[in-house]
Amino acid sequence: MKSLIAFIKKEVLEQIRSGRVMILGILFVLFGIMNPAVAKLTPWLLEAMADSLAETGMIVTDVTVSAMDSWVQFFKNIPMALIAFVLLESSIFTREYQTGTLVLFLTKGLERYKVVVSKTVALTVLWTLGYWLCFGITYGYNAYFWDNSVAHNLMFSVVCWWLFGLWVIALLILISAIANSNTGVLTVTGGVVLASYLLGFLPKLKEYVPTMLADGNTLIYGTAGKENYMVSLAVTVVVSIVCFVISILIFNRKQL
Q1: Is there a contact between 82 and 168 (Cβ–Cβ < 8 Å)?
Q2: What angle do CA 95, 101, 102 make, to 5 degrees?
Q3: Residue 63, CB half-sphere, CA atoms under 13 Å: how many?
Q4: Using one digit for the tens of pLDDT, what is the confidence trace for 106-125?
């Protein structure tokens, strides 16, 4: 247990020293502020563009914004934050394959499964802190300017998106345990997420794919209820656990 805790600390310190924690922290804070800011500035921007739009035949009327507009921005921007997260963390295994640092730890008696566990814990904690920081900032500003109660199923929708991010992390860990290059990790991970997204267009498969959890706007507008997402939620949790277990099995046999 001591070796596992020590390796987790090593992963956290490496995240801090490399600057990835700072970059992701700034990014999540920026998106958290941007969501209500865009909603708040929309009427002013439309008013400023009223004359130029009038020349094209478009008439700008009074626009009323609410917390709903900010939450729509949240679910539009958080995918970009997740993409940035994956880009920064896609080398969490491959850089150690290339430098050979893992071999040093393993020859000193560190069990292989602890490597997978520690890296999964580090990414999960980093994603969780960043995601909920972004949510907290948006929620606070929305509560100050408007009323968050206009958004239906708000907490359920953001929890679903958080779980979607955990699924992507589990997928990233699995592919990283297999591929030796950063390009391969990004290509396969992105390909699987894209495939899940495309399968979501098939009515019979829509409720079974993890990408359904990323459809937060449908939930907050109340056009779909929590019950519509339960199957996808269960599938996402099970698949994430399976990916984690397979990652350990593959890494235990991987030639370093």
Answers
A1: yes
A2: 90
A3: 16
A4: 787 778 888 899 999 999 99
Quick check: pTM over 0.85?
Answer: yes
At residue 79, the 3 state secondary structure works out as helix
Give strand ranges (E) for 13-66.
Answer: none
Q: Compute, in degrees rounded to 10, the torsion defined by CA atoms 195, 240, 110, 254.
A: -30
pLDDT digit string, tens, across residues 87-103: 999 988 888 888 777 88
CB 122 within 8 A of CB 8: yes
Could you give the CA distance from residue 163 to residue 157 in angstroms, rounded to a whole number? 10
Calculate the alpha carbon distances from 161 to 1, 154, 216, 219, 220 in Å: 32, 11, 7, 11, 12
Q: 34 Cβ partners below 8 Å, 6+ apart?
A: 73, 77
Spatial separation of the C-alpha atoms in residues 152 and 183, rounded to whole Å: 39
Tokens of 78: 């958080």
Q: What is the DSSP letter of 206?
A: G
